[in-house]
Amino acid sequence: MAVKSVVYRHRKPQATDNYRCVEDLEAFLQVYEERFERSYGFFRPYLQHVICRYLECGNLRNGFARVKCRDCNHEYLLAFSCKRRHFCPSCHQKRVVEFGEGYV
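^ thats the sequence. predicted structure below, dont judge the formating
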């Protein structure tokens, strides 16, 4: 069985529009009712937890694993992810790829 070679690409969630939209969560929550509630419904308290996890996703300051190749000794830091589907584009895409491989 062949082992797939995985190349880690550091992502920069702070540079995305999605991140900037909710980066200042307090300000977002203050304007939600006025600007978004009519279109999207009331803000469910669980969403605040999901957004906080998303804002922490991929940030080395919030925890990481050190990954090292036994053959070439190359190593890198892998930031912990939020593991949230649908809201976090990075984690959602990972799940889509993992799920889709079973059907190829």
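The beta strands are 64-68, 75-79.
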